[in-house]
Amino acid sequence: MNLNPHRLYGILSVACGAGYGWLYYSTISHHGASNLHSFEVCLFKAATGLPCPSCGSTRAVLALMAGNAHEALLLNPFGFVIAIVMLLAPVWICYDLLSKETTLFDFYCCLETWVRKPTIAFPLVLLVIINWIWNISKGL
Amino acid sequence: MDAQKVDMFIMTNGKYFESYEVAELRDQLLYADESKWAVIQTLQFKDPTTSLIVSLVAGSFGVDRFIIGDTGLGIGKLLTCGGLGVWAIIDWFKIMGATREKNMMQLQEALSYK
Question: Which residues from chain B sit within 8 angstroms of residue A43, using beta carbons?
Fold first, then answer.
């Protein structure tokens, strides 16, 4: 995809909006109908019955919102990354739009180049696989 | 560049680009310097069909985005379980076009390289 600042900010805004909407829905359904099964959106889990690497991250973010960092870490450490992005991205986008700069886009490009380095990419892939195995063993 | 060479390139690699870009690409290659031929010959384009298969199988992990070089978006897809499944489904339809777009960018970079 030929990514430019507008496209990236659009994608991030939609993703954050959907994330906040999903969190709101999860909070409502968690409080309102605790005896009902929560609505599952994971295609992989629906198809195979096994959790995917990011399964449990909604619950982790909800636990973080309730102040249970330890519980969030045990559920899925991805929750921390998601929570940081969801908190930081809207503020950063607003800053860039108001100051007419592209600091977030520049940071994204730097991060992308950095992550592509084999010395960084290999440990990260390994961490994701370890987290996935942990998710499966936890039976999320 | 020699018309015969350009037509051979288009016949072999036309499937890696959007159909509406092929005519324009042919003109561009015809006007390009002969020295670019060696560079263009060494390029390896990503197959849109392979991307589609990967997207269908492992789209919710963002693997399709990783293989076409959109690492950032791939991480986004991986962390959000394929954008709550929605992004994964959208990418089933979008990934072939995205792959062709990436191939075009790669070719343009090679052509502009001095």
Answer: 59-60, 81-82, 85, 88-89
Give the whole-angstrom CA distance, residue A21 versus residue A17. Answer: 6
- Dist CA B53 CA B70 (whole Å): 17
Helix/strand/coil (H/E/C) assignment for every residue in A47-64:
HHCCCCCCCCHHHHHHHH
**Among all residues of chain A, which has the CA nearest to that of B57?**
A44
The ipTM, to two decimals, is: 0.81
Rounded mean pLDDT, A8-37: 78
Q: What whole-number distance in Å separates Cα of residue B54 and Cα of residue B57?
A: 5
Q: What integer pLDDT is reported at residue B103 of this predicted model?
A: 92
Nearest chain A Cα distance for residue B4, angstroms? 31
Token look-up 């619950």 returns A59
Question: Which residues 3-62 of B have a C-beta within 8 angstroms of A?
Answer: 59-61
Length of chain B: 114
Domain boundaries, chain A: 5-33+48-138
Tokens (6 digits) for A127? 């961490």
Residues A56-86 pLDDT 10s: 888 888 888 888 888 888 888 888 899 999 9
Find chain A residues with C-beta within 8 A of B99's C-beta: none
Residue B84 has what pLDDT? 84
E strand or H helix at A85: helix A78-99
- What average pLDDT does this structure show over A114-128? 90
Distance between CA atoms of residues A17 and A68, nearest Å? 24
Decide if B72 touches A, using CB distance below 8 A: yes
Interface probe with A: pick from B67, B84, B101, most Cβ of A within 10 Å: B84
Amino acid A36: pLDDT? 45
